[in-house]
């Protein structure tokens, strides 16, 4: 797992949804109810950009067709049978870091 610093996150500015490019991926850093989450930024239903969505009841809501995804796991709500990638987030010395699996992590997990 490689950890990437995400500059410019105002931890006092909750709630927020900020799209960042990190490790070759487009990721949403989401601040919601005093927690941080990191999810992929593309909706698996029809490819909408999720940064225009919002959070409700612990889920990220897609702005296109209102599909919802668990903020912690990225799992779609019952009946959707889909998910978005989720990433670990940590705060170190006041700075936000996102962890992304490397190729070696994936290969040696098997
Ligand atoms: S594109 Fe996101 S719910 Fe349809």
Describe what this molecule looks like in 3D:
The protein is built from 1 helix and 10 strands. The chain has 110 residues and is mainly beta. The chain has a single domain, classed as Rieske Iron-sulfur Protein (3-layer Sandwich). Strands 2-3-4-8 form a 4-stranded antiparallel β-sheet, with no helix packed on it. The radius of gyration is 14 Å and the shape is globular. The two termini are 15 Å apart. The model has no long low-confidence stretch (mean pLDDT 94).
The H-and-E topology, N to C, reads as: EEEEEEEEEEH
| CA radius of gyration | 14 Å
Task: Pick out the low-confidence regions.
Answer: none
- What's the overall geometry? globular
Total strand count, please?
Answer: 10
* CATH C-level category: Mainly Beta
Widest beta sheet: strand line-up: 2-3-4-8
Bound molecules: FE2/S2 (inorganic) cluster
What's the pLDDT, averaged over the residues? 94
InterPro entries: Rieske_2Fe-2S, Rieske_2Fe-2S_sf
Pfam family, one: Rieske
Keywords: 2Fe-2S, Iron, Iron-sulfur, Metal-binding
Protein name: Rieske (2Fe-2S) protein
Summarize the structure.
Residues 3-98 form the Rieske domain. The chain has one helix at 103-109; strands at residues 2-6, 16-22, 25-32, 35-40, 54-56, 59-61, 68-70, 86-87, 89-92, 95-100.
């Amino acid at each position: 797992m490689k950890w990437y610093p995400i500059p410019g996150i105002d931890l006092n500015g909750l709630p927020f949804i900020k799209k960042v490019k990190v490790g070759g991926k487009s990721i949403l850093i989401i601040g919601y109810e005093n927690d941080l989450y990191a999810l992929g930024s593309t909706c698996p239903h029809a490819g909408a950009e999720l940064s225009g969505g919002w959070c409700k009841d612990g889920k990220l809501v897609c702005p296109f067709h209102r599909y919802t995804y668990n903020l912690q796991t990225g799992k779609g709500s019952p009946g959707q049978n889909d998910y978005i990638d989720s990433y670990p987030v940590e705060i170190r010395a006041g700075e936000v870091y996102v962890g992304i699996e490397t190729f070696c992590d994936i290969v040696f997990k098997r």
